[in-house]
Amino acid sequence: xxxxxxxxxxxxxGAAYLAQKKGLDVFLSDxxxxxxxxxxxxxxxxxxxxxxxxDEERLLEADWIIKSPGIPKKAAIMHKIHQKGxxxxxxxxxxxxxxxxxxIAITGSNGxxxxxxxxxxxxxxxxxxxxxxxxxxxxxxxxxxxxNFDYYVLEVSSFQLDDVQxxxxxxxxxLNLSQDHLDQYNYNYEEYALAKFRITENQENDNFxxxxxxxxxxxxxxxxxxxxxxxxxxxxxxKMREGGYLTNQKMVVRLEDEFAMDIxxxxxxxxxxxxxxxxxxxxxxxxxxxNESIRHSLxxxxxxxxxxxQVADFGGVKYINDSKATNVNAAYYALESMKQxxxxxxxxxxxxxxxxxxxxxxxxxxxAIVCLGLDNQKIIDFFKDKKELIYSSSSMxxxxxxxxxxxxxxxxxxxxxCCASFDLFENYEDRGNQFKNEVLKIEKAAN
Length: 447
Fold this sequence. Notes:
This protein has 3 domains: 88 residues, NAD(P)-binding Rossmann-like Domain (Rossmann fold, 3-Layer(aba) Sandwich), CATH 3.40.50.720; 208 residues, UDP-N-acetylmuramoyl-L-alanine:D-glutamate ligase (3-Layer(aba) Sandwich), CATH 3.40.1190; 138 residues, Mur ligase, C-terminal domain (Protein-Tyrosine Phosphatase, Chain A, Alpha-Beta Complex). The strands form 3 sheets. The protein has a 9-stranded mixed β-sheet with strand order 7-8-6-9-10-11-12-13-14. It has a 6-stranded mixed β-sheet with strand order 15-16-20-17-18-19, with helices on both faces. The longest helix has 19 residues. By secondary structure, it is of the alpha/beta class. It is 37% helix and 22% strand. This is UDP-N-acetylmuramoylalanine--D-glutamate ligase. Pathway: Cell wall biogenesis; peptidoglycan biosynthesis.
Protein backbone atom coordinates (compact mmCIF):
# COMPACT_ATOMS: atom_id res chain seq x y z
CA UNK A 1 0.00 0.00 0.00
CA UNK A 2 1.36 3.44 -0.97
CA UNK A 3 0.91 6.05 1.74
CA UNK A 4 1.51 9.74 1.01
CA UNK A 5 1.58 12.15 3.96
CA UNK A 6 0.85 15.80 3.19
CA UNK A 7 2.49 18.21 5.64
CA UNK A 8 5.77 17.86 7.53
CA UNK A 9 4.79 19.13 10.97
CA UNK A 10 4.06 17.24 14.20
CA UNK A 11 1.09 15.23 12.90
CA UNK A 12 2.56 14.58 9.44
CA UNK A 13 5.91 13.34 10.71
CA GLY A 14 4.18 11.17 13.30
CA ALA A 15 1.88 9.62 10.67
CA ALA A 16 4.82 8.93 8.32
CA TYR A 17 6.77 7.33 11.19
CA LEU A 18 3.83 5.05 12.11
CA ALA A 19 3.31 4.08 8.44
CA GLN A 20 6.97 3.18 8.09
CA LYS A 21 6.95 1.19 11.35
CA LYS A 22 3.98 -0.81 10.06
CA GLY A 23 5.94 -1.70 6.91
CA LEU A 24 3.96 0.53 4.52
CA ASP A 25 5.49 2.31 1.51
CA VAL A 26 5.49 5.95 2.71
CA PHE A 27 6.43 9.31 1.19
CA LEU A 28 5.98 12.74 2.83
CA SER A 29 5.38 15.92 0.83
CA ASP A 30 5.29 19.51 2.14
CA UNK A 31 4.78 22.46 -0.21
CA UNK A 32 6.37 24.78 2.37
CA UNK A 33 9.64 24.55 4.28
CA UNK A 34 9.90 21.78 6.87
CA UNK A 35 11.20 22.98 10.25
CA UNK A 36 14.74 21.86 11.08
CA UNK A 37 13.75 19.54 13.97
CA UNK A 38 11.20 17.71 11.78
CA UNK A 39 13.58 17.49 8.81
CA UNK A 40 16.21 15.95 11.11
CA UNK A 41 13.62 13.46 12.43
CA UNK A 42 12.63 12.40 8.88
CA UNK A 43 16.27 11.94 7.84
CA UNK A 44 17.16 9.96 10.98
CA UNK A 45 14.05 7.79 10.57
CA UNK A 46 14.93 7.08 6.93
CA UNK A 47 11.60 8.46 5.65
CA UNK A 48 11.62 9.73 2.07
CA UNK A 49 10.31 13.30 1.77
CA UNK A 50 10.19 16.45 -0.35
CA UNK A 51 9.69 20.11 0.58
CA UNK A 52 8.97 23.33 -1.30
CA UNK A 53 6.92 21.46 -3.89
CA UNK A 54 4.40 18.67 -4.49
CA ASP A 55 5.33 15.92 -6.95
CA GLU A 56 1.74 15.67 -8.17
CA GLU A 57 2.30 12.56 -10.26
CA ARG A 58 3.64 10.68 -7.24
CA LEU A 59 0.94 12.03 -4.93
CA LEU A 60 -1.83 10.93 -7.26
CA GLU A 61 -0.46 7.36 -7.32
CA ALA A 62 -1.14 6.99 -3.57
CA ASP A 63 -3.61 4.44 -2.18
CA TRP A 64 -4.13 6.49 0.98
CA ILE A 65 -3.33 10.13 1.71
CA ILE A 66 -2.84 11.36 5.27
CA LYS A 67 -3.52 15.11 5.33
CA SER A 68 -2.26 17.42 8.05
CA PRO A 69 -5.05 19.66 9.46
CA GLY A 70 -3.18 22.83 8.44
CA ILE A 71 -3.70 22.10 4.73
CA PRO A 72 -6.92 23.80 3.55
CA LYS A 73 -9.44 21.35 2.13
CA LYS A 74 -9.95 23.82 -0.72
CA ALA A 75 -6.27 23.62 -1.77
CA ALA A 76 -5.80 22.83 -5.48
CA ILE A 77 -3.95 19.57 -4.76
CA MET A 78 -6.85 18.36 -2.58
CA HIS A 79 -9.26 18.93 -5.46
CA LYS A 80 -7.12 16.70 -7.72
CA ILE A 81 -6.83 14.02 -5.02
CA HIS A 82 -10.62 13.91 -4.52
CA GLN A 83 -11.16 13.76 -8.29
CA LYS A 84 -8.98 10.62 -8.40
CA GLY A 85 -11.07 9.10 -5.58
CA UNK A 86 -8.06 8.49 -3.31
CA UNK A 87 -8.90 7.88 0.35
CA UNK A 88 -7.98 10.91 2.49
CA UNK A 89 -7.62 10.68 6.28
CA UNK A 90 -6.32 12.82 9.10
CA UNK A 91 -3.52 11.56 11.35
CA UNK A 92 -6.22 10.88 13.99
CA UNK A 93 -8.15 8.53 11.70
CA UNK A 94 -4.96 6.82 10.47
CA UNK A 95 -3.40 6.20 13.88
CA UNK A 96 -6.69 5.00 15.44
CA UNK A 97 -6.64 2.04 13.03
CA UNK A 98 -3.44 0.75 14.67
CA UNK A 99 -4.40 0.84 18.37
CA UNK A 100 -6.75 -1.11 20.63
CA UNK A 101 -6.56 1.63 23.31
CA UNK A 102 -9.76 3.36 24.44
CA UNK A 103 -9.97 6.84 22.87
CA ILE A 104 -11.55 9.83 24.59
CA ALA A 105 -11.97 12.50 21.88
CA ILE A 106 -12.89 16.12 22.60
CA THR A 107 -14.12 18.75 20.16
CA GLY A 108 -16.00 22.05 20.31
CA SER A 109 -15.47 25.67 19.32
CA ASN A 110 -13.96 26.63 22.68
CA GLY A 111 -12.44 24.95 25.71
CA UNK A 112 -11.05 21.93 23.80
CA UNK A 113 -7.46 22.28 24.98
CA UNK A 114 -8.44 22.99 28.59
CA UNK A 115 -10.89 20.06 28.78
CA UNK A 116 -8.56 17.65 26.96
CA UNK A 117 -5.73 18.55 29.35
CA UNK A 118 -8.08 18.27 32.33
CA UNK A 119 -9.31 14.77 31.37
CA UNK A 120 -5.70 13.69 30.79
CA UNK A 121 -4.83 15.07 34.26
CA UNK A 122 -7.74 13.12 35.83
CA UNK A 123 -6.68 9.83 34.18
CA UNK A 124 -2.98 10.36 34.89
CA UNK A 125 -3.70 11.15 38.55
CA UNK A 126 -5.55 7.83 38.82
CA UNK A 127 -2.41 6.02 37.55
CA UNK A 128 -3.93 4.96 34.22
CA UNK A 129 -1.56 4.41 31.27
CA UNK A 130 -2.65 7.35 29.14
CA UNK A 131 -1.38 9.41 26.20
CA UNK A 132 -2.29 12.97 25.21
CA UNK A 133 -2.49 13.97 21.55
CA UNK A 134 -4.46 15.24 18.59
CA UNK A 135 -4.32 19.01 18.29
CA UNK A 136 -2.23 19.18 21.45
CA UNK A 137 1.11 17.78 22.62
CA UNK A 138 2.94 15.00 20.79
CA UNK A 139 1.76 13.26 17.64
CA UNK A 140 -0.91 10.63 18.36
CA UNK A 141 0.47 8.45 15.54
CA UNK A 142 4.01 8.53 16.93
CA UNK A 143 2.71 7.53 20.36
CA UNK A 144 0.75 4.63 18.80
CA UNK A 145 4.02 3.53 17.12
CA UNK A 146 6.22 3.77 20.22
CA UNK A 147 4.06 3.55 23.36
CA ASN A 148 1.74 1.00 24.90
CA PHE A 149 -1.02 3.17 26.40
CA ASP A 150 -4.44 1.85 27.42
CA TYR A 151 -6.11 5.23 26.84
CA TYR A 152 -5.61 8.25 24.60
CA VAL A 153 -7.15 11.65 25.29
CA LEU A 154 -7.31 13.55 21.98
CA GLU A 155 -8.19 17.14 21.16
CA VAL A 156 -9.86 17.00 17.74
CA SER A 157 -10.56 19.92 15.40
CA SER A 158 -13.25 20.18 12.73
CA PHE A 159 -10.46 19.99 10.11
CA GLN A 160 -9.39 16.59 11.48
CA LEU A 161 -13.02 15.43 11.59
CA ASP A 162 -13.55 16.44 7.93
CA ASP A 163 -11.33 13.51 6.97
CA VAL A 164 -13.00 10.79 9.06
CA GLN A 165 -14.37 7.50 7.71
CA UNK A 166 -14.06 4.96 10.55
CA UNK A 167 -12.86 6.94 13.60
CA UNK A 168 -14.81 5.65 16.58
CA UNK A 169 -13.86 6.98 20.02
CA UNK A 170 -15.00 5.14 23.15
CA UNK A 171 -16.08 8.51 24.62
CA UNK A 172 -16.69 11.61 22.50
CA UNK A 173 -17.31 15.11 23.86
CA UNK A 174 -18.81 18.07 22.00
CA LEU A 175 -18.34 21.00 24.38
CA ASN A 176 -20.08 23.83 22.51
CA LEU A 177 -20.61 25.38 19.08
CA SER A 178 -20.08 28.94 17.93
CA GLN A 179 -19.30 30.53 14.58
CA ASP A 180 -15.65 29.77 13.83
CA HIS A 181 -13.56 28.85 10.76
CA LEU A 182 -16.57 29.77 8.61
CA ASP A 183 -14.20 30.77 5.80
CA GLN A 184 -13.44 27.03 5.42
CA TYR A 185 -17.12 26.01 5.49
CA ASN A 186 -18.64 28.25 2.81
CA TYR A 187 -19.62 30.78 5.51
CA ASN A 188 -22.28 28.28 6.59
CA TYR A 189 -22.55 27.81 10.36
CA GLU A 190 -24.53 24.55 10.11
CA GLU A 191 -21.95 23.03 7.75
CA TYR A 192 -19.22 23.78 10.33
CA ALA A 193 -21.39 22.44 13.19
CA LEU A 194 -22.08 19.20 11.31
CA ALA A 195 -18.31 18.73 10.86
CA LYS A 196 -18.01 18.78 14.66
CA PHE A 197 -20.78 16.19 15.03
CA ARG A 198 -18.72 13.77 12.92
CA ILE A 199 -16.95 12.92 16.19
CA THR A 200 -19.90 10.66 17.06
CA GLU A 201 -21.03 9.43 13.62
CA ASN A 202 -19.28 6.02 13.86
CA GLN A 203 -20.02 5.42 17.54
CA GLU A 204 -22.21 2.47 18.54
CA ASN A 205 -24.47 1.86 21.54
CA ASP A 206 -21.53 0.68 23.69
CA ASN A 207 -19.91 4.14 23.29
CA PHE A 208 -20.65 7.46 25.02
CA UNK A 209 -21.40 10.93 23.64
CA UNK A 210 -21.15 13.82 26.14
CA UNK A 211 -22.84 17.01 24.95
CA UNK A 212 -23.81 20.51 26.12
CA UNK A 213 -27.55 20.80 26.86
CA UNK A 214 -27.22 24.62 27.00
CA UNK A 215 -25.83 24.90 23.47
CA UNK A 216 -28.51 26.03 21.02
CA UNK A 217 -26.95 24.75 17.78
CA UNK A 218 -26.16 21.36 19.36
CA UNK A 219 -29.77 21.02 20.49
CA UNK A 220 -31.06 21.96 17.01
CA UNK A 221 -28.88 19.41 15.25
CA UNK A 222 -29.65 16.65 17.77
CA UNK A 223 -33.29 16.88 16.59
CA UNK A 224 -32.14 15.89 13.08
CA UNK A 225 -29.27 13.47 13.70
CA UNK A 226 -29.42 9.84 14.69
CA UNK A 227 -26.88 9.28 17.47
CA UNK A 228 -26.25 5.62 18.35
CA UNK A 229 -23.97 6.23 21.34
CA UNK A 230 -25.33 6.60 24.87
CA UNK A 231 -25.92 10.36 25.17
CA UNK A 232 -25.00 12.11 28.42
CA UNK A 233 -25.72 15.86 28.79
CA UNK A 234 -24.23 18.57 30.98
CA UNK A 235 -25.72 21.98 31.81
CA UNK A 236 -25.03 24.97 34.01
CA UNK A 237 -28.65 26.13 33.63
CA UNK A 238 -30.83 23.15 34.54
CA LYS A 239 -30.81 20.02 36.70
CA MET A 240 -30.29 16.62 35.04
CA ARG A 241 -31.64 13.23 36.04
CA GLU A 242 -28.54 11.81 34.37
CA GLY A 243 -25.44 13.81 33.46
CA GLY A 244 -23.79 16.87 34.97
CA TYR A 245 -25.26 20.14 36.22
CA LEU A 246 -24.73 23.17 38.45
CA THR A 247 -26.94 23.87 41.45
CA ASN A 248 -26.42 26.25 44.40
CA GLN A 249 -22.75 26.84 43.49
CA LYS A 250 -22.17 23.09 43.48
CA MET A 251 -21.39 20.91 40.47
CA VAL A 252 -23.10 17.51 40.45
CA VAL A 253 -22.55 14.51 38.18
CA ARG A 254 -25.16 11.74 38.25
CA LEU A 255 -24.49 8.47 36.50
CA GLU A 256 -24.65 5.12 38.33
CA ASP A 257 -23.69 7.03 41.48
CA GLU A 258 -23.22 10.71 42.29
CA PHE A 259 -20.20 13.03 42.41
CA ALA A 260 -20.47 16.57 43.77
CA MET A 261 -18.13 19.42 44.72
CA ASP A 262 -18.35 23.15 45.40
CA ILE A 263 -17.26 25.22 42.41
CA UNK A 264 -15.21 27.39 44.82
CA UNK A 265 -12.84 24.37 45.07
CA UNK A 266 -12.16 24.26 41.31
CA UNK A 267 -8.73 25.47 40.21
CA UNK A 268 -10.30 27.01 37.06
CA UNK A 269 -12.49 30.13 37.21
CA UNK A 270 -15.49 31.26 35.13
CA UNK A 271 -18.78 29.63 34.13
CA UNK A 272 -17.27 28.21 30.94
CA UNK A 273 -14.76 26.32 33.08
CA UNK A 274 -17.55 24.95 35.30
CA UNK A 275 -19.03 23.53 32.08
CA UNK A 276 -15.61 22.13 31.05
CA UNK A 277 -15.16 20.60 34.53
CA UNK A 278 -18.61 18.98 34.35
CA UNK A 279 -17.82 17.44 30.96
CA UNK A 280 -14.43 16.16 32.20
CA UNK A 281 -15.99 14.73 35.38
CA UNK A 282 -18.61 12.81 33.36
CA UNK A 283 -15.78 11.24 31.33
CA UNK A 284 -14.01 10.35 34.60
CA UNK A 285 -17.14 8.71 36.00
CA UNK A 286 -17.70 6.68 32.80
CA UNK A 287 -14.15 5.35 33.24
CA UNK A 288 -14.90 4.41 36.89
CA UNK A 289 -12.45 6.86 38.39
CA UNK A 290 -13.04 7.36 42.10
CA ASN A 291 -14.81 10.53 43.28
CA GLU A 292 -11.91 11.55 45.51
CA SER A 293 -9.49 11.18 42.63
CA ILE A 294 -11.67 13.36 40.35
CA ARG A 295 -12.04 15.99 43.10
CA HIS A 296 -8.28 16.09 43.72
CA SER A 297 -7.61 16.45 39.98
CA LEU A 298 -10.11 19.32 39.60
CA UNK A 299 -8.50 21.12 42.55
CA UNK A 300 -4.89 20.69 41.37
CA UNK A 301 -5.21 21.27 37.60
CA UNK A 302 -3.04 24.07 36.21
CA UNK A 303 -4.63 26.29 33.53
CA UNK A 304 -3.41 25.87 29.96
CA UNK A 305 -0.79 28.31 28.66
CA UNK A 306 -2.25 31.11 26.47
CA UNK A 307 -5.75 30.58 27.90
CA UNK A 308 -6.62 33.28 30.48
CA UNK A 309 -3.03 33.01 31.72
CA GLN A 310 -2.05 35.65 34.26
CA VAL A 311 1.32 36.97 33.12
CA ALA A 312 2.07 39.76 35.60
CA ASP A 313 0.54 42.05 38.21
CA PHE A 314 2.40 45.33 38.72
CA GLY A 315 1.43 48.94 39.26
CA GLY A 316 -1.96 47.63 40.34
CA VAL A 317 -2.64 46.31 36.79
CA LYS A 318 -3.16 42.65 35.88
CA TYR A 319 -1.83 41.46 32.49
CA ILE A 320 -3.66 38.44 31.06
CA ASN A 321 -2.68 36.34 28.04
CA ASP A 322 -5.65 34.74 26.25
CA SER A 323 -3.95 34.43 22.86
CA LYS A 324 -5.72 31.10 22.27
CA ALA A 325 -9.02 33.01 21.93
CA THR A 326 -9.10 32.91 18.13
CA ASN A 327 -12.86 33.43 17.75
CA VAL A 328 -15.58 35.71 19.12
CA ASN A 329 -17.04 33.11 21.45
CA ALA A 330 -13.68 32.48 23.14
CA ALA A 331 -13.22 36.23 23.67
CA TYR A 332 -16.77 36.32 25.10
CA TYR A 333 -15.74 33.88 27.84
CA ALA A 334 -12.61 35.90 28.58
CA LEU A 335 -14.45 39.24 28.82
CA GLU A 336 -17.21 37.64 30.92
CA SER A 337 -14.64 36.49 33.48
CA MET A 338 -13.02 39.96 33.86
CA LYS A 339 -13.73 41.54 37.23
CA GLN A 340 -12.06 44.94 36.60
CA UNK A 341 -12.08 47.67 33.89
CA UNK A 342 -10.23 46.16 30.95
CA UNK A 343 -7.93 47.43 28.21
CA UNK A 344 -8.62 44.90 25.47
CA UNK A 345 -6.05 43.94 22.81
CA UNK A 346 -7.92 42.45 19.83
CA UNK A 347 -7.34 41.69 16.14
CA UNK A 348 -5.59 39.53 13.56
CA UNK A 349 -7.01 37.53 10.65
CA UNK A 350 -10.81 37.79 10.74
CA UNK A 351 -12.59 34.47 10.10
CA UNK A 352 -16.05 35.88 9.39
CA UNK A 353 -16.49 37.26 12.93
CA UNK A 354 -19.76 38.77 14.17
CA UNK A 355 -18.77 41.22 16.91
CA UNK A 356 -22.41 41.84 17.83
CA UNK A 357 -22.14 38.74 20.07
CA UNK A 358 -19.81 40.59 22.43
CA UNK A 359 -21.08 44.15 21.99
CA UNK A 360 -22.83 44.33 25.40
CA UNK A 361 -19.87 42.82 27.23
CA UNK A 362 -17.48 45.26 25.58
CA UNK A 363 -19.72 48.20 26.58
CA UNK A 364 -19.85 46.94 30.16
CA UNK A 365 -16.28 45.68 30.76
CA UNK A 366 -13.90 47.41 28.32
CA UNK A 367 -12.50 50.92 28.90
CA ALA A 368 -10.27 50.99 25.79
CA ILE A 369 -9.66 48.87 22.69
CA VAL A 370 -6.19 48.35 21.22
CA CYS A 371 -6.36 46.76 17.76
CA LEU A 372 -3.45 44.51 16.78
CA GLY A 373 -3.29 43.45 13.14
CA LEU A 374 -2.38 44.35 9.58
CA ASP A 375 -6.02 45.23 8.86
CA ASN A 376 -8.00 46.53 11.85
CA GLN A 377 -10.74 48.31 9.91
CA LYS A 378 -13.60 45.86 10.58
CA ILE A 379 -13.08 46.04 14.36
CA ILE A 380 -12.69 49.85 14.30
CA ASP A 381 -15.83 50.27 12.18
CA PHE A 382 -17.90 48.05 14.47
CA PHE A 383 -16.85 49.60 17.78
CA LYS A 384 -16.19 53.25 16.79
CA ASP A 385 -19.66 54.44 17.90
CA LYS A 386 -19.59 52.28 21.03
CA LYS A 387 -16.16 53.05 22.52
CA GLU A 388 -14.39 56.37 22.60
CA LEU A 389 -10.88 55.00 23.07
CA ILE A 390 -9.83 52.84 20.09
CA TYR A 391 -6.20 52.58 18.99
CA SER A 392 -4.55 50.76 16.10
CA SER A 393 -1.19 48.96 16.07
CA SER A 394 0.62 46.46 13.86
CA SER A 395 3.20 45.07 16.31
CA MET A 396 2.96 43.47 19.75
CA UNK A 397 5.49 45.94 21.17
CA UNK A 398 3.32 48.91 20.13
CA UNK A 399 0.08 47.25 21.28
CA UNK A 400 1.44 46.48 24.76
CA UNK A 401 2.97 49.97 25.06
CA UNK A 402 -0.38 51.59 24.24
CA UNK A 403 -2.28 49.26 26.61
CA UNK A 404 0.21 49.91 29.42
CA UNK A 405 -0.12 53.69 28.99
CA UNK A 406 -3.94 53.45 29.16
CA UNK A 407 -4.22 51.07 32.14
CA UNK A 408 -4.56 52.55 35.62
CA UNK A 409 -4.37 50.99 39.05
CA UNK A 410 -7.25 48.51 39.44
CA UNK A 411 -7.46 47.79 35.67
CA UNK A 412 -6.53 44.75 33.61
CA UNK A 413 -4.85 44.44 30.21
CA UNK A 414 -6.32 41.48 28.31
CA UNK A 415 -4.96 39.99 25.10
CA UNK A 416 -7.98 38.08 23.74
CA UNK A 417 -7.70 38.57 20.00
CA CYS A 418 -10.94 37.04 18.57
CA CYS A 419 -8.95 36.34 15.40
CA ALA A 420 -6.35 34.03 13.89
CA SER A 421 -2.71 35.06 14.33
CA PHE A 422 -1.18 34.49 10.89
CA ASP A 423 -0.95 38.13 9.74
CA LEU A 424 1.80 39.04 12.23
CA PHE A 425 2.72 35.83 14.06
CA GLU A 426 3.60 32.19 13.36
CA ASN A 427 0.68 30.94 15.46
CA TYR A 428 -1.26 31.80 18.61
CA GLU A 429 1.62 30.51 20.81
CA ASP A 430 4.05 32.93 19.15
CA ARG A 431 1.53 35.75 19.65
CA GLY A 432 1.06 34.85 23.33
CA ASN A 433 4.79 34.51 23.94
CA GLN A 434 5.49 37.90 22.36
CA PHE A 435 2.79 39.44 24.58
CA LYS A 436 4.39 37.91 27.67
CA ASN A 437 7.87 39.10 26.64
CA GLU A 438 6.69 42.68 26.08
CA VAL A 439 4.78 42.77 29.39
CA LEU A 440 7.78 41.40 31.33
CA LYS A 441 10.05 44.00 29.65
CA ILE A 442 7.79 46.79 30.93
CA GLU A 443 7.61 45.19 34.39
CA LYS A 444 11.42 44.97 34.52
CA ALA A 445 11.77 48.63 33.50
CA ALA A 446 9.17 49.65 36.12
CA ASN A 447 11.17 47.93 38.86
